[in-house]
Amino acid sequence: MIENQRSLDNYVTLNGDYNYETGRNGEKLVYGSFWTSKQRCGNSIQEISYRACFKPQLPDFFLSKYSKIGNIVLDPFAGRGTTAIESALSGRIPISNDINPISKILTEPRLMPPTYEEVSNRLSYIMFDTNESAEIDLSMFYERKTEGEIVSLKKYLTSKKEEGKEDYIDKWIRMVATNKLSGHSKGFFSVYTLPPNQSATPAEQIKINKRRNQKPLYKDVKKIILKKSRSLLKDITPAIRENLFAISKNAVFLEDDSRNLKEINDNYVDMTITSPPFINLVDYAKDNWLRLWFNGYDHSKYEDKITILNKLEDWSLFIKETLNEIYRVSKIGGHVAFEVGETKKADLSEIVYGLGLNVGFSHIITFINTQKFTKTSNIWGVDNNKKGTNTNRIVLLQKK
Ligand SMILES: C[S@@+](CC[C@H](N)C(=O)[O-])C[C@H]1O[C@@H](n2cnc3c(N)ncnc32)[C@H](O)[C@@H]1O
């Protein structure tokens, strides 16, 4: 047990059941189910799939404790933008960085949400030519007419972007379509395939079709986009929309490597909330190949850029360089909540603790969320029965 528990309680201000321990290196740890009670209460606008995303309750927990309205909040590994959206919803100003360009495509439009009517009107204006076809073979994913609709939409969005005329409604439609390209239920443009946050390769899809004895059926692209828009916008009241639009004017989107956030000044960021790529687990370029194609990117160009590290030493060096950069951009007094999954091989939070001290941070405490995950709850976006994580550790650092 740590000695100054009372003062730490005041600082951390936890509710419910939790208990303190001391880690192997003398670091403070606290175990608990920190956001269970609110688990199902995330805003509807967060419901976008991305591999290894965290639940909105995680940034919400840290934002409410260690940041104020108007603060600048950074996520250097933004993914689907969970931190950015949660920050904006609570009046903070996000800097959302990810080397994968899909991150901005999924995040920015949700800071400028159109109304359902605006989406509906815009869709009815876009002309679909069902005879269009993609320059690559997508017949294993899409029925011929569906492919025509997707390609028509892709062309419409590309020309609007090239003309500099892509507005918040077009960007919203791009975001929803990107999310609906492929998935494992009827609500996607594709035939049954992997979950939407992972794309099968064409060869893998041919095998899936054979095994399931299935072929792609027609899907109404506009109808699917409208249905998803309705559910995403469910919790967006006029007041929330107005606040999000106001925040979006100051929000920043970057595509930097986390080790060199060159556009961000020294001592600029109030709080960082993030989770880095896992070791040897997720191939973001491959997972996003179809999403990259739809948005006019060649996924092979991202294979070297998006970091995949197989060895612990390489991962540690990458994290050290990233923490060093986060230290540079953090204000004095600024906090960093750094979430790492658990692996069988090593306790990554111990590594982050050591590296954090090494680059100059003070360690406040490491939160260990002891939420029990069932196979179906899948609350971290990683299946429990796979080589994934089911307990999460968040190392809380401060630049003093
Ligand atoms: C675990 S995910 C983050 C998920 C995010 N917390 C969310 O809720 O969606 C890690 C992210 O790091 C990004 N990434 C990988 N290498 C990177 C690098 N060198 N610099 C910046 N981002 C990188 C990946 O594209 C991926 O989106």
Shape: globular
CATH class of the largest domain: Alpha Beta
Instruction: Work out the number of β strands.
Output: 9
The span between the termini is 24 Å
CATH superfamily membership of the largest domain: Vaccinia Virus protein VP39
Strand content: 5-15%
Describe the structure.
The chain is built from 14 helices and nine strands. It is of the alpha/beta class. It folds into two domains: 5-104 and 237-398, Vaccinia Virus protein VP39 (Rossmann fold, 3-Layer(aba) Sandwich), CATH 3.40.50.150; 116-232, no CATH class. The protein has a nine-stranded mixed β-sheet, with helices on both faces. Strand 1 and strand 2 form a beta hairpin. It starts with a helix and ends with a strand. Residues 1-10 and 373-389 have low confidence and may be disordered. S-adenosylmethionine is lined by residues 50, 52-54, 76-77, 79-80, 82, 98-100, 103, 257-258, 275, 277, 284, 306-307.
